[in-house]
């Protein structure tokens, strides 16, 4: 105790002396400053300020997270982010974590006040992001043992009918894209008859007019412009913040999707109704007027083996209408990819997406659907108006390609239960065709409530039936025909053999959901090199753990995103689906996109009980404007640069993303800076930037701003 007291007295005496000295020094300094009022400020302005600016620019040109663009102009300078002064109303926070990552954040509630702009309500619950070291874990990506969809499809295209190429001018080869040139962006609205619903690859009027026939729905297929558009799609005049899930399943704002023809045409079947300022969805459909859940349970009762949410997890709904079937399968823990052609029934896919239900605009026409083979547990068609039986069963054979061995095709249509001459004729043709395809009828029933019937077929699990067939039509595909080649591949009237090797994908059914989301697919072997360089099973596990850590430690809590406002999510460059798997307990669904020049890991994603699609980001995506709440791009843009420019891709992001939607970009610093310049010119709010070891992350929020000028035709 004596020692403690002695030390304490010594420190007190020393502290008192130091205090007196400091006080005297401050007084002398104050007197000197009062006598020389101009000396210090001038020196600080001339030298220290410039030094600070230089240091900031040298370390990280993306430090400023505060939008400083003018609100009343569509011509935005292409320049480095401006130096700004932080105020209480325009806060920007800069910090460096213990690992040297530099982070900046901007206030979420800061709104742009463009002339005549409708303002979305502030999301006051969103906090400013925190610094998270996990955000910038660098992982060098490569192809490993995986081929790419582009390579798979190239081989198939060589075997396409040469007659399709006759009379056509050869396509010009794409040159390596140069960096976006120019010193400014001049934004204009797109001048399209589709207006606020413009989908560039589906609304290419010039290309559609040149088609020689529409017999196979060629006019509903993708016809992308030679040069990707760089105009902005206008929003509907009275667009407002979407109603959130799950209430959105029952009703949406009319002004967000201002179309009423479908309500007039299908209202009696409980598809959609107009109710004041809302469009309401009673949950019905052509084959289930009394609700989708009753119909879903009818399928389970007819064949308990279906096992919604256990055995059957991933479903394809063809001709989905407003996607109530897929919307209510969420109640059975089942994920549905709903598809329908654009405008076949006015805005049906747009209704689905606005409701928070997964859907894409696609048609069963002349090309394969953009999915790998043997991935869907169930394929469903309820009065989907697809002529399955014609032309050798070409379209039904496409479903056969997509369906897992042992998977089910649920067909609910009038030929199943009505005796009109046309129905009888179609039924007889379908019986012949499915028997020739070796599909077994495993259930057939008629509902006493909706007074409709359905039949369930099962795809074979081995090749015994194929080998015993007396008739050889439909033919078996050539061994060289890759069932996974799906990008711009012409349909073929043939069937692929079921894998005989038990170690090959498709030979076994996945483990039940939800275990399958965590389970390493049995067909990934240690002899295969994964995308990140490890043996494939270890690569898969490491990817899952990486995204689990990033999502839980950073995305959910450290980026200021109010996840209650997020429903429709897209991972623009999915690998193993780890990002989607990490979000599976959230009230969201994730569209996993595997780029055609990336390792073809989409089968892995489906094996996990998730879903996705092939796409080339040098082209427009087959969805309506304002479809997604959050877009995630992990090392996407840097990998696109050798083939296409960054600018049109970000314009496509702007088209897809809803006002107030969030955009997360992870890439090299140069690329992230380039992306940041473009989104700032779009008057988006840059909410956070992080940089470390030449890797960077950007989180931005799209605003409601639109330019006033319209592009010339």
UniProtKB/TrEMBL annotation:
Compositional bias ranges of the Basic and acidic residues kind: 51-60, 154-165
CC per GO annotation: endosome; membrane; trans-Golgi network
Keyword Transmembrane helix among record annotations: yes
Comp. bias regions, Polar residues: 63-74, 140-152
Keywords, comma-separated and alphabetical: Glycoprotein, Membrane, Methyltransferase, Signal-anchor, Transferase, Transmembrane, Transmembrane helix
GO MF annotations, alphabetized: methyltransferase activity
Basic residues composition bias: residue spans: 166-176
Known EC number: 2.1.1.-
SUPFAM superfamilies referenced in this protein's UniProt entry, alphabetically: S-adenosyl-L-methionine-dependent methyltransferases (SSF53335)
InterPro entries according to UniProt: Put_SAM_MeTrfase (IPR004159), SAM-dependent_MTases_sf (IPR029063)
Chain intervals for the UniProt region annotation (Disordered): 51-124, 139-178
Localization annotation: Endomembrane system; Membrane
BP term (GO), one: methylation
KW Transferase (keyword) present: yes
Protein origin, superkingdom: Eukaryota
Catalytic class of the enzyme: transferase
Biased composition (Low complexity): 79-105
Bilayer topology: Single-pass membrane protein; Single-pass type II membrane protein
Similarity comment text for this entry: Belongs to the methyltransferase superfamily.
Record protein name field: Methyltransferase
Organism this protein belongs to: Eragrostis curvula (weeping love grass)
Lineage of source species: Eukaryota, Viridiplantae, Streptophyta, Embryophyta, Tracheophyta
């Amino acid at each position: 105790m004596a020692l403690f007291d002695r030390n304490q007295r010594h420190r007190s005496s020393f502290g008192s002396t130091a205090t007196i000295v400091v006080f005297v020094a401050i007084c002398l300094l104050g007197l000197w400053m009062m006598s020389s009022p101009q000396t210090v400020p001038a020196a600080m302005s001339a030298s220290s300020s410039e030094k600070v600016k230089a240091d900031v620019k040298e370390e990280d040109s993306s430090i400023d997270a505060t939008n400083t663009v003018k609100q009343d102009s569509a011509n935005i300078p292409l320049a480095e982010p401006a130096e700004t002064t932080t105020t209480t109303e325009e806060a920007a926070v800069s910090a460096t974590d213990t690992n040297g990552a530099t982070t900046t954040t901007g206030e979420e509630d800061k709104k742009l006040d463009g002339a005549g702009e409708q303002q979305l309500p502030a999301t006051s619950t969103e906090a400013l992001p925190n610094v998270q070291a996990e955000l910038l874990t660098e992982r060098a990506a490569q192809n490993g043992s995986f081929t790419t969809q582009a390579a798979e499809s190239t081989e198939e295209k060589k075997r396409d009918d040469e007659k399709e190429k006759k009379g056509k001018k050869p396509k010009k080869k794409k040159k390596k894209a140069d960096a976006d040139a120019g010193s400014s962006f001049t934004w204009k609205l797109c001048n399209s008859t589709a207006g606020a619903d413009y989908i560039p690859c589906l609304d290419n009027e010039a290309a559609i007019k040149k088609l020689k026939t529409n017999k196979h729905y060629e006019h509903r297929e993708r016809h992308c412009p030679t040069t990707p558009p760089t105009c902005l799609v206008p929003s509907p005049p009275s667009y407002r913040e979407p109603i959130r899930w799950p209430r959105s399943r029952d009703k949406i704002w009319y002004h967000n999707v201002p179309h009423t023809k479908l309500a007039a045409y299908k209202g009696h079947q409980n598809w959609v109704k107009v109710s004041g300022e809302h469009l309401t969805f009673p949950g019905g459909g052509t084959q289930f007027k009394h609700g989708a859940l009753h119909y879903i349970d009818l399928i389970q009762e007819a064949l308990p083996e279906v096992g919604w949410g256990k055995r059957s997890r991933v479903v394809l709904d063809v001709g989905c209408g407003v996607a109530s079937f897929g919307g209510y399968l969420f109640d059975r823990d089942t994920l549905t990819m709903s598809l329908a052609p654009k405008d076949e029934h006015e805005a049906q896919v747009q209704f689905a997406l606005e409701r928070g239900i997964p859907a894409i605009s696609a048609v069963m026409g002349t090309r394969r659907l953009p999915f790998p083979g043997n991935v869907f547990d169930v394929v469903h068609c309820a009065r989907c108006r697809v002529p399955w039986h014609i032309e050798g069963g070409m379209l039904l054979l496409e479903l056969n390609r997509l369906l897992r061995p042992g998977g089910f095709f649920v067909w609910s249509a009038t030929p199943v239960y009505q005796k009109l001459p046309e129905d009888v004729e179609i039924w007889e043709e379908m019986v012949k065709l499915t028997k020739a395809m070796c599909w077994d009828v495993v259930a057939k029933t008629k509902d006493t409530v909706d007074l409709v019937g359905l039949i369930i077929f099962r795809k074979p699990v081995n090749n015994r039936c194929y080998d015993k067939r007396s008739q050889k039509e439909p033919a078996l595909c050539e061994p060289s025909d890759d069932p996974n080649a799906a990008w711009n591949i012409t349909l073929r009237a043939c069937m692929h053999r079921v894998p005989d090797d038990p170690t090959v994908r498709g030979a076994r059914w996945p483990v039940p959901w939800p275990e399958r989301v965590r389970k390493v697919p049995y067909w990934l072997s240690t002899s295969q090199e994964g995308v990140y360089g490890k043996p494939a099973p270890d690569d898969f596990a490491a990817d899952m753990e990486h995204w689990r850590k990033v999502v839980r430690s950073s995305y959910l809590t450290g980026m200021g995103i109010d996840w209650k406002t997020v429903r429709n999510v897209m991972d623009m460059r999915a690998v193993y689906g780890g990002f989607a798997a990490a979000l599976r307990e959230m009230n969201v669904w994730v569209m996993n996109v595997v780029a055609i020049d990336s390792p073809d890991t989409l089968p892995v994603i489906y094996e996990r009980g998730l879903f996705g699609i092939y796409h080339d980001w040098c082209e427009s995506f087959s969805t309506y404007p304002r479809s997604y709440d959050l877009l995630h791009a992990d090392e996407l843009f840097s990998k696109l640069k050798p083939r296409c420019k960054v600018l049109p891709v970000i314009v496509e992001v702007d088209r897809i993303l809803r006002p107030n939607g969030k955009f997360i970009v992870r890439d090299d610093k140069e690329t992230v800076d380039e992306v940041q310049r473009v989104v700032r010119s779009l008057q988006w709010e840059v909410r956070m930037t992080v940089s470390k070891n030449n890797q960077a992350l950007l989180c931005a929020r799209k605003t409601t701003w639109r330019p006033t000028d319209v592009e010339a035709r």
